Amino acid sequence: MRHLAVSAAIAAVVFVWIVLSGRTAGDFRIDEVHKIGETYALRLVEEGRFHDREWFASAVERSNPPAGKYLFGLAIQLAGQPLPADSALARSVEHGARLPPPEWLARCRSWLRPVRFLTAAVTALTAALLFFMVSRAAGMLGGTIAVILYVTAFLTLTFAATAVFDPLLTLFVLASAAPLLSDRLFRSPGWDAALIATASLMAALAFQVRLSGLVALPAAIAILFIRAWRGRLGRAALLSIALGLGTLAIGTTINPFYWTTASDPTLPAVFQASEALPMRIVSRYRMQIADLTAIMSGLHEPHLGPTGTLQFVAEYAFGDEAGIALLGGVLLAAAAFALPRLRPPRSEIPLALWPAAVIMIFTAWLPLRYPRYVLLTIPPFAILAAIGWTSVWRTVRRGLAGKSQ
Question: pLDDT for 344-357, tens place per residue?
Answer without folding.
Answer: 787 788 899 999 99
